């Protein structure tokens, strides 16, 4: 993950390297836009003090506003996209502030130095399953500091020493006199207090909300259609735009054969040639969309220097063959012991090649962006994003403006999974919206159709790994090599260093917990032609499939049960041992099968382990094969994130990640032929429906290790657990995903 | 033409072949009904037409003139719909939430037709996609709402 | 055209063996044209006349490819023995038909003989174009010579290997199946009928798809004199329905106005163009004048239905109970657009109840459109608001067979059940339609 952070930090540079000279308007404007949403005005006190450098994550009023009624408005550095972060923030801050998290209203904070709280305070993203673990102490301190500020005001009003005051949720209490002051009555004055640096934190044992399965704050709105996403927002006087994208990235429009006809279509305001697309601006999106589709555009091949251009002959199958055919030397990603010697001494050597396809994010909310140029020269943008300062920096660069002139709004995300980073070569719609708004002199909302989205998504990379395993006379693995082919998303986005490994390319193959003494894992770089980006659990999403299924091949070759072999090879790590035993126990004990279930179906189980994003997981899947189709009945996942904030959210996230893992194992694959994706909608890119979902059983283990991530770690163990189980039933190894590719005549 | 949406009559000037989805979102201005795929593949745009689930992205507006259209905004005014919403909240079904308007309406339609659905009935009827994979929660909530009935 | 060619070439191989001697002169000779010796005239028609007849003849559908230049050729027509490619018919002198005289052009269009004497495969519908009037041929020639951009693009050689690539036996095929002579008006019929007959038989070459073919892949009839004419045929994975008065599998329930509307807008209350008719509509029929479409409708409605059409279809209510195989798939995948009642949505989304593809014993069109979806219908430059998705990645052969068997036996439909093998065969030999509108520019 470090590399991802570095990359993102690099992207962030544009926003943070300039002098932090925010105007009051610049700061407030982010929330003062004429948005139909009930945006609450932030108290302006925070920025009024912003003369010198801001220490991120310290200024209470930039984060917390307590209203007269005692409810709290909180600006979260992280965006809510279903992972429950707004609730977790309320839970952590509320714990120290002593306000019931249910009384919080949470929104994503605007771009600004107060909120770049991650990794020593120089950036922020919502990604890498980093949000809670990177901000937990900061949020607690903010809550505690705010509580102290309330106490100070209360002490003055009651004219008692602060030490005599206590709090109950929302109330300051002077026990001796029985007097009570509501937070709401203290808030205005409290906001002007200096922020204490040493407010005491609660002892874990006193936690009222942290570690409890609190209900989420956003569930009722999301169950009644009230939640507003980027695509739902309106600003006054806004026009709508649809685009016809070049069929291949990097190609540009030439002649438009029927411009006059399209201009005359209902609702059409204007037609614009923009980079890589032709856009239609209209009164309604439906009118814009029909007109954009009606445009008959000649598309011209890209200039030779367009490095990201999609060639007309690109096919994913040919790229896969290239990955398979390319040989090293590679860059060392992990090297331990004497691999050559171990292979020479080995009793048995096995080899296998695995691969997994490009994947689309497939978040259900199609990309959209609203851009408005304000009279004061600021550009205001509403768009799904996982990194406001990065978007700010990119927009500033695009229009040659200082970053503070760019106001970024971050509405709720209708799913993200890594989709909403600054994928600059046509991967996000806000540059189009900003350009069009400038051209027409009115606010413009661009919406991409689902077909646009499949054409311009940045995919989870295709991957291919060649393994070689050496077993001793007892069938125990003693040597392992892996050629990890291709490129990780970070180097693909950020530029490849031929001498450096992209950790996002090899994660899930390196740093496995198994005591295999001799290991040599190399990354062999093959540049991607299709655009690749971050996708839920990143490299782990396929690499743990490769490794953990090859692990079962080694177990079989050595005559060991795959669970027992794992058990032996993690014997030295109590954390992993506990996790493995926990998942087996939760599944009613390990049995590989095949066995006959109560309903008469023939079933088998597969097991896997993964170490993603600072957490540890062990997974078991139970499958049968019916009519050639894999049915996954149950998945048991044990997760150890070290320590936790909300077990209900963790369970929900593991279930969600399991669903996505199942979807990739069973169904998903992006295929290109002739430089074009064959799938432009869900008809040709099926994703997991309810009928193919497994029942998921989650066990949470708190080992006390440093806090790990929660949103992504549930995913990587699922495809290998399923594939290992299928291999038992099908009598053939599964070395390629998705399983719908394999003919399983059982 | 006139449309009856949530018991209110709207005068509509959209073209006859405009998808009901875009009439609801852009002309009537109700945004709880979501655009997901435009191809009847995902179900995010589900509304009820005369009580039956309808994918509004593939429904020409002309074809629903004279029918009762119900969107997520007033689903709680329906007795079954209210139970479904309560069950959704209780089971904490939504994650990103984008598909959930459609899921709630599809579940309401199912329970109106079949007040006591089995797991198989639910799998047959609940064909809306959820990229967050909230399917376990959806099944649990439908059973819970069914028990409330 | 793949299937026709496959059978055709196989049968040609027999001829190659049989016809060993004689007729060498015959197979190489250049036929005579009324334009012999006419030289290289200047413009003989207006742009509009030439473009109109090019549209009516749908030259562009085969002689252009989506990302290519207009009329530069290149469309691949595959067969198991190899492929043939449509040729460059731009006026480029080197690679196109820039050196063609009017007489040579006429011989290619109406007689299937290229300037150098080689015989064209009847994938080029010259047996139909034979009926074109002299004036229309002149207008067409003028159009290609003076209004189409010359494009230097070499024709791709056929990949069919010797001896199957020999063309001369086609001359004998022509003796058997080619009827020479332009359209002869039937004086017993009115002008509208005759205009319709001319358009249908000649430039429109409707019979290429809609008339069944005989043992040598010849169209069984080229005029209404034989009631096999336009009686419905299977071609390249699509069943082109009868255009005769058959109640179930033809146009019996369509009025003349319905037909004209269908050809003008691509849709009416009975259905929407799909399969290979999308190309014919997008590139050809919608460009015809109202009067010509009326004429076509008038002519088609004069063709009586044939025996064996079965009991006339009537709508019957069906309550979907999710019990029969295919019902769940229907509800999950079909009902949202086509309606639980199978009636479709006005003219925007076609019904499944009572349509030819659900009544015919041929199930290919039904299977094909489910597997592959349908191309975008672009009427007057505006793509359709609704398109048929492809289900090949979502539904198994069994599920497609089940859902179609359900649809073909519901609402009064009585098409025979669909088998898994039928689906499997088509899945392997067909490709999904593009979700993007495809416009073939002519200029």
Defining traits:
heterotrimer; B: 149 residues; alpha+beta; 2 domains; C: 443 residues; Cytochrome Bc1 Complex, Chain D, domain 2; 3 domains
Folded structure, characterized:
The complex is a heterotrimer of chains A (746), B (149) and C (443). Chain A has 746 residues and is an alpha+beta fold. Chain A folds into three domains: 38-223, Aldehyde Oxidoreductase, domain 4 (2-Layer Sandwich), CATH 3.30.365.10; 230-303 and 367-447, Aldehyde oxidase/xanthine dehydrogenase, molybdopterin binding domain (Aldehyde Oxidoreductase, domain 4); 317-358 and 460-741, 2-Layer Sandwich (Aldehyde Oxidoreductase, domain 4), CATH 3.30.365. Chain A has 22 helices and 27 strands. In chain A, the strands form seven sheets. In chain A, strands 9-10-7-17-14-15-16 form a seven-stranded mixed β-sheet, with helices on both faces. Chain A has a five-stranded mixed β-sheet with strand order 12-20-19-18-13, with helices on both faces. In chain A, strands 21-22-23-24-27 form a five-stranded mixed β-sheet. In chain A, α5 (85-97) packs parallel to α6, α18 (540-557) runs parallel beside α22 and α21 (647-666) packs across α22 (718-730). With 149 residues, chain B is an alpha+beta fold. Chain B has two domains: 2-73, Roll (Ubiquitin-like (UB roll)); 75-148, DNA polymerase, domain 1 (Orthogonal Bundle). Chain B is built from five helices and five strands. In chain B, a hairpin with a 2-residue loop joins β3 (46-49) and β4. The longest helix of chain B has 14 residues, at 100-113. The mean pLDDT of chain B is 97. Chain C has 443 residues and is mostly helical. Chain C folds into three domains: 2-177, no CATH class; 191-301, Cytochrome Bc1 Complex, Chain D, domain 2 (Orthogonal Bundle); 327-429, Cytochrome Bc1 Complex, Chain D, domain 2 (Orthogonal Bundle). Chain C contains 18 helices and eight strands. Chain C has a two-stranded antiparallel ribbon. In chain C, α11 (256-265) crosses α13 (290-301), α16 packs across α18 and α17 (397-407) crosses α18. The longest helix of chain C has 17 residues, at 2-18. Chain C is globular and about 70 Å long. Chains in contact: A-B, A-C, B-C.
């Amino acid at each position: 993950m470090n590399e991802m952070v570095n990359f993102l930090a690099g992207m962030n540079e544009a926003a943070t390297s300039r002098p932090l000279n925010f105007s009051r308007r610049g700061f407030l404007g982010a929330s003062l836009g004429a948005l139909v949403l009930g945006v609450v005005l932030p108290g302006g006190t925070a920025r009024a003090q912003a003369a010198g450098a801001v220490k991120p994550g310290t200024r209470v009023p930039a984060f917390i506003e307590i209203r007269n009624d005692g409810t709290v408005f909180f600006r979260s550095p992280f965006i809510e996209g279903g992972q429950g972060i707004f609730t977790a923030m309320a839970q952590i801050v509320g714990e120290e502030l002593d306000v019931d998290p249910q009384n919080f209203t949470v929104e994503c904070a605007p771009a600004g130095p107060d909120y770049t709280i991650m990794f020593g305070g120089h950036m922020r993203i919502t990604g890498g399953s980093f949000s809670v673990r990177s901000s937990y102490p900061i949020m607690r301190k903010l809550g505690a500091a705010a509580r102290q500020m309330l106490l100070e005001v209360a002490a003055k009003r009651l004219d008692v020493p602060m030490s005599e005051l206590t709090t109950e949720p929302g109330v300051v209490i002077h026990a001796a006199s029985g007097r009570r002051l509501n937070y709401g009555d203290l808030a205005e004055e409290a906001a002007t207090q200096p922020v204490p640096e040493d407010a005491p934190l609660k002892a874990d044992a006193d936690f009222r909300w942290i570690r409890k399965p609190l209900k989420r704050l956003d569930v009722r709105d999301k169950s009644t259609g009230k939640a507003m996403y980027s695509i739902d927002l309106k600003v006054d006087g806004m026009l709508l735009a649809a685009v016809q994208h070049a069929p291949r990235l990097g190609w540009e429009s030439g002649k438009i054969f029927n411009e006059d006809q399209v201009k005359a279509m209902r609702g059409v305001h204007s037609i614009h040639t923009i980079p890589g697309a032709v856009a239609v601006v209209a009164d309604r999106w439906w009118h814009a969309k029909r007109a954009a589709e009606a445009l008959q555009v000649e598309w011209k091949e890209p200039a030779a220097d367009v490095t990201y251009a999609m060639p007309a002959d690109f096919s994913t199958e040919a790229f896969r063959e290239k990955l398979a055919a390319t040989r090293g030397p590679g860059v060392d990603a992990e090297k331990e012991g004497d691999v050559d010697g171990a292979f020479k001494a080995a009793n048995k050597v096995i080899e296998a090649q695995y691969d997994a396809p490009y994947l689309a994010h497939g978040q259900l909310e199609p990309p959209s962006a609203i851009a408005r140029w304000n009279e004061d020269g600021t550009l205001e943008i509403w768009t799904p994003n996982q990194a406001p300062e990065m978007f700010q920096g990119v927009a500033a660069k695009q229009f040659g403006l200082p970053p503070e002139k760019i106001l970024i709004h971050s509405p709720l995300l209708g799913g993200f999974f890594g989709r909403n980073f600054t994928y600059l070569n046509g991967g996000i719609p806000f540059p189009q919206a900003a350009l069009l708004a400038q051209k027409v002199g009115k606010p413009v909302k661009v919406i991409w159709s689902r077909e646009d989205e499949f054409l311009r998504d940045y995919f989870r990379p295709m991957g291919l790994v060649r393994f070689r395993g050496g077993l001793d006379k007892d069938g125990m693995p003693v040597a392992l090599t892996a050629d990890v082919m291709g490129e990780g998303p970070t180097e693909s986005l950020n530029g490849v260093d031929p001498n450096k490994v992209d950790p996002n390319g090899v994660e899930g193959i390196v740093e496995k917990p198994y005591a295999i003494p001799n290991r040599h894992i190399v990354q062999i770089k093959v540049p991607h032609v299709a655009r690749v980006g971050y996708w839920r659990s990143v490299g782990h999403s396929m690499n743990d499939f490769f490794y953990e299924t090859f692990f079962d091949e080694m177990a079989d070759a050595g005559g060991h049960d795959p669970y027992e072999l794992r058990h032996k090879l993690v014997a030295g790590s109590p954390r992993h041992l506990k996790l493995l035993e926990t998942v087996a126990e939760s599944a009613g004990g390990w049995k590989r099968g095949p066995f006959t279930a109560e309903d008469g179906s023939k079933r088998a189980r597969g097991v896997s382990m993964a170490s993603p994003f600072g957490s540890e997981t062990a997974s078991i899947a139970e499958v049968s094969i019916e009519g050639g189709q894999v049915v996954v009945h149950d998945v048991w996942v044990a997760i150890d994130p070290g320590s936790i904030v909300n077990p209900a959210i963790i369970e929900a996230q593991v279930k969600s990640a399991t669903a996505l893992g199942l979807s990739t194992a069973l169904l998903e694959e992006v295929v290109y032929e002739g430089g074009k994706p064959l799938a432009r909608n869900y008809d040709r890119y099926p994703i997991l429906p309810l009928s193919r979902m497994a029942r998921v059983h989650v066990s949470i283990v708190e080992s006390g290790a440093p806090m790990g991530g929660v949103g992504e770690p549930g995913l990587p163990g699922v495809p290998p657990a399923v594939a290992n189980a299928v291999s038992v039933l099908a009598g053939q190894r599964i070395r390629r995903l998705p399983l719908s590719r394999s003919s399983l005549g059982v | 033409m006139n449309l009856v949406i949530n018991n209110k009559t709207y005068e509509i000037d959209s073209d006859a072949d405009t998808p009901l989805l875009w009439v609801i979102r852009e002309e009537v201005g109700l945004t709880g009904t979501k655009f997901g795929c435009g191809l009847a593949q995902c179900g995010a745009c589900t509304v009820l037409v005369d009580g039956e689930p309808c994918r509004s992205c593939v429904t020409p507006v002309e074809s629903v003139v004279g029918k009762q259209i119900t969107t997520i905004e007033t689903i709680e005014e329906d007795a079954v719909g209210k139970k479904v919403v309560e069950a959704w909240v209780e089971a904490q079904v939504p994650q990103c939430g984008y598909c959930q308007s459609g899921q709630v309406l599809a579940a309401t339609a199912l329970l109106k037709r079949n007040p006591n659905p089995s797991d198989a009935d639910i799998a047959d009827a609940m064909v809306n996609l959820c990229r967050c994979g909230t399917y376990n929660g959806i099944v649990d909530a439908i059973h819970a709402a069914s028990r409330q009935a | 055209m793949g299937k026709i060619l496959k059978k055709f070439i196989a049968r040609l191989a027999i001829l190659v063996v049989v016809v060993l001697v004689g007729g060498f002169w015959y197979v190489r000779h250049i036929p005579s044209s009324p334009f012999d010796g006419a030289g290289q005239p200047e413009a003989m028609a207006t742009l509009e006349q030439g473009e109109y007849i090019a549209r009516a003849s749908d030259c562009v559908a085969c002689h252009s490819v989506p990302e290519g230049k207009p009329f530069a050729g290149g469309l691949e027509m595959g067969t198991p023995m190899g492929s043939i490619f449509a040729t460059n018919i731009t006026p480029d002198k080197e690679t196109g038909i820039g050196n063609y005289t009017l007489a040579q052009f006429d011989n290619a269009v109406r007689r299937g003989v290229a300037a150098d004497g080689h015989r064209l495969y009847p994938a080029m519908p010259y047996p139909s174009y034979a009926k074109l009037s002299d004036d229309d041929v002149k207008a067409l020639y003028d159009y290609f010579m003076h209004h189409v951009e010359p494009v230097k693009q070499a024709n791709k050689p056929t990949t069919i290997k010797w001896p199957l690539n020999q063309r001369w036996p086609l001359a004998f095929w022509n003796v058997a199946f080619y009827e020479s002579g332009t359209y002869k008006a039937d004086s017993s019929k009115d002008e509208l009928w005759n205009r319709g007959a001319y358009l249908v038989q000649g430039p429109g070459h409707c019979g290429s798809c809609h008339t069944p073919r005989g043992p040598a892949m010849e169209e069984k009839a080229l005029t209404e004199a034989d009631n096999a004419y336009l009686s419905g045929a299977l071609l390249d994975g699509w069943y082109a329905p009868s255009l005769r008065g058959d109640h179930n599998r033809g146009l019996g329930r369509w009025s003349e106005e319905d037909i004209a509307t269908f050809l003008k807008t691509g849709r009416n209350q009975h259905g929407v163009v799909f399969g290979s008719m999308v190309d014919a509509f997008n590139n050809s029929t919608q460009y015809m004048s109202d009067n010509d479409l009326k004429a076509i409708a008038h002519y088609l409605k004069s063709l009586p239905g044939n025996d064996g059409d079965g009991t006339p279809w009537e709508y019957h209510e069906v309550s979907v109970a999710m019990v029969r195989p295919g019902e769940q798939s229907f509800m999950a995948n079909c009902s949202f657009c086509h309606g639980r009642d199978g009636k479709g949505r006005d003219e925007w989304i076609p019904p499944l109840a009572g349509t030819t593809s659900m009544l015919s014993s041929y199930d290919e069109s039904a299977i094909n459109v489910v597997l592959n979806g349908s191309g975008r219908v672009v009427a007057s430059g505006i793509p359709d608001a609704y398109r048929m998705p492809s289900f090949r990645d979502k539904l198994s052969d069994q599920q497609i067979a089940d859902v179609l068997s359900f649809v073909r036996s519901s609402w009064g439909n009585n098409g025979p059940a669909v088998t898994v093998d039928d689906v499997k065969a088509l899945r392997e030999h067909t490709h999904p339609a593009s979700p993007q509108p495809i416009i073939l520019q002519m200029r």
